[in-house]
Each structure stands twice: as structure tokens, then as C-alpha cells.
Design brief:
240 residues, alpha/beta, nine-stranded mixed beta sheet, two-stranded antiparallel sheet, 7 helices, 13 strands
Length: 240
């Protein structure tokens, strides 16, 4: 059987045939990348109680913590100064999923909000605004084509897992976020930074395979898709 990957979704209010409705949403970019890497995706709704996380993670071989809106600063003991669209319900469920995956030694791939969530779940904190006019991370634009075209460089540290995945010391990635890691969790190791020093990639320091990136590899082609192949290898190697 192909490995089954649980992917966290995000609840959004959208216009439908029935009028405005609340939907559990998950971009097909995630499911396509997982499928193309030889795995089967299974959606985890974001509004579930934390108590069900253990049984859900037992159903899958790995977990992908996907993107979404900002994490409630209360999750890392801070006041809300620049966080938008927060959902403490989603935060607590996803944090429980991370802990369940760690307890069950199920590999975790964390993307964008996912990296931030992984850091918070393990005791780290976030910067609530990292954008600036003319900076590495430009101000968020409502022009979707412009946002999708933005790129910046992440440099990998020596012996980084991502350096092996990309076969390079750096990668040009998309720029689709306005928050980032501040205090990195004790159990995480920095994998890569931008020119302005922002942490944009980290991995777990230990036997558990958990890797997070701030960019969206599922929306990029070429070597970026190798992240999903590495995720699959982590799952299948652990099953042996």
C-alpha cells in the first residue's frame, strides 16, 4: 500500500451555490504533491477536538501540517499585535496532532503556517510581522499574480537535511508569508535562513523526522518537489 498522509485543512467562509458557507479547505497543490510522490492524502479537518488527534494520527503513516492563517499569539504567551484570522480551535488541534505524531514516531512535514505551528507546539515563539517595504519580505500585496511571482533566497546551514534534498547550499523560494519564527524551540535545529537572518527552515533534533519550511514547495516545481519524496522516504524507512 502507498503511505497515507494526514493533511491539516483550514476552515474558511466562502461563496457557494448555497450562498456564503463555511468550508474545510485544502489546496490541491498539497494533495497533488503528495500523490505525485507516491503517497495517499487524507484530510484532517481543523475544527476537531484535540482529544481525537491521537486516534487520527494512528490512522496515517505521516502528517503534513499545511498553511493557513496566523496562529493565535496566546498559544505562545503573547499579545496579539499583528496576527490575523486566528483560530485557537485550529491551533490546539494541530498542536495536539504534532504531539501525537512525535509520540507515535510518525514523520511530519510542516509548511508555512505549519513550520510556525511546529515551533509553537514544541515551545517556541513567533514574529507577528516580518514584512517591510523594500525588504527581503515585501509588504503583502492584494495582487495575487505579483505575490505568487515573488522570490527570495534561503541559505542552508552546513549538513542541513534540506541541502541534501536540494543538492545545493541555497534555494530560491516563494515569498507568501508575513510572519516567521522568533525564539526557536529547544528541540529544533535551524536548517536555513534568509539574508535578513529570518529562520525559514528547521528540523527536529533527534530520531523523530520532523522538517519544516516557511515557503510553499507544493506551489513550486523542479527540486522543490524533492521535499515530498524525502518525506515519503522518511515514512517508508521508518516502517521497515
Amino acid at each position: 500500500m502507498k503511505p497515507i498522509v494526514g493533511i491539516t485543512a483550514w476552515k474558511r467562509r466562502l461563496e457557494t451555490f448555497y450562498g456564503p458557507d463555511t468550508l474545510q479547505t485544502l489546496s490541491a497543490h498539497y494533495t497533488d504533491s503528495i500523490t505525485n510522490a507516491g503517497m495517499t492524502p487524507l484530510m484532517f479537518p481543523s475544527s476537531l477536538e484535540p482529544e481525537v488527534a491521537t486516534s487520527l494520527v494512528e490512522l496515517v503513516d505521516g502528517v503534513l501540517i499545511s498553511g493557513g492563517d496566523d496562529i493565535d499569539p496566546a498559544s505562545y504567551d503573547s499579545e496579539n499585535t499583528d496576527s490575523k484570522g486566528v483560530s485557537s480551535v485550529a491551533d490546539q488541534f494541530e498542536i495536539a496532532v504534532v504531539h501525537a505524531a512525535r509520540e507515535q514516531a510518525k514523520p511530519v512535514l510542516a509548511i508555512c503556517r505549519g513550520l510556525q505551528l511546529l515551533n509553537v507546539a514544541l515551545g517556541g515563539s513567533l514574529l507577528q510581522e516580518v514584512t517591510s517595504a523594500g525588504g527581503v519580505h515585501e509588504l503583502i500585496s492584494r495582487d495575487h499574480e505579483e505575490m505568487s511571482a515573488r522570490r527570495h533566497v534561503v541559505s542552508f546551514i552546513a549538513d542541513a537535511t534540506l541541502a541534501g534534498i536540494y543538492g545545493a547550499a541555497e534555494a530560491k523560494v516563494n515569498t507568501l508569508h508575513h510572519q516567521g519564527l522568533d525564539r526557536i524551540a529547544d528541540d529544533l535545529i535551524v536548517e536555513g535562513r534568509t539574508d535578513d537572518g529570518l529562520i525559514e527552515a528547521a528540523r527536529f533534533d533527534g530520531d523523530w523526522w520532523a522538517l519544516g519550511v516557511q515557503w510553499h514547495p507544493e506551489r513550486l516545481e523542479g527540486d522543490h518537489q524533492e521535499i515530498f519524496s524525502a518525506f515519503r522516504r522518511a515514512i517508508t524507512d521508518g516502517a521497515r
